[in-house]
Amino acid sequence: VDNGHGDKVAFYWVGNDPNDKGSITYAQLLAEVCKFANALEGRGVKPGDRVALYMPMITELVVAMLACARIGAVHSIVFGGYSADSLATRILDAGARVLITADGVYRGTKLIKLLEIANSAMSKAAEQGCAVKTHICVSHLGRLHTPGDLTKHKESVEAGWVTGRDEWWHAVMKTSNAEHSAVMMDSEAPLFMLYTSGSTGKPKGVLHSTAGYMLYAATTFKYSFDAQLDDVYWCTADIGWITGHSYVTYGPLL
Fold first, then answer.
1. Own/partner long-range contacts of 21-25 (Cβ < 8 Å, ≥24 apart)
2. Residue 92: which residues within 8 A CB-CB, separation 6 or more?
3. Where are the alpha helices (DSSP H) in 80-129?
4. How many angstroms from the chain centroid is the CA of residue 102?
5. CA–CA distance, 167 with 151 (Å, rounded to integer)
6. 53-87: per-residue pLDDT in tens?
7. What global pTM score does this model have?
């Protein structure tokens, strides 16, 4: 898209998918966000509903959080390195009935079985009265040049699949409309919840409001980071932390 200065601008995303060209334009990002916003609304997600995200650093994480913001749902991103107990605790506390995950991710050569962890967390949460009704999973491992045989992991994924609850991201997006009108929210409406690490006690959920948070993220990115239109910018934080929320996603895009 043209930024008014005759330049083509793009939102760059660095991942470990060898088939990914490493960037997505603003127009492409908007279309993906609209499609997932329609998918969430089609599954009954309304303004104020809590949506838990337990994902690696992939493009779909940005799409999911922005789709939540677009429809007024409150996203609660849980760092993809946390255990099933940690994820279950945050699902319970937030009252999340929707969970977005991926099947797995590699950290170096180690396979992190995110879907197995998520299944365990959903079981633990259901036992305590908070059953996840909608679970959408990104098929991430299949698009990587993986260092090992994933046959056993695939079998465990299929064994734990719950019909009516679990859906694949690509299947959901395939039939979703790329046009969506954003829901207008009050300035003090909640935007997202993010939990403390829990290293010194029970994790505490911090609720950020829409206008206040977005204004501060935009302002600090502009003035503290001195962001200019021709800059190439990199933030090393994981989106599971507040720095990643603010300076990978919201600040630069705002």
1. 24/59, 25/1
2. 125, 128, 129, 130
3. 84-94, 114-127
4. 10
5. 20
6. 999 999 999 999 999 999 999 999 999 999 999 99
7. 0.88
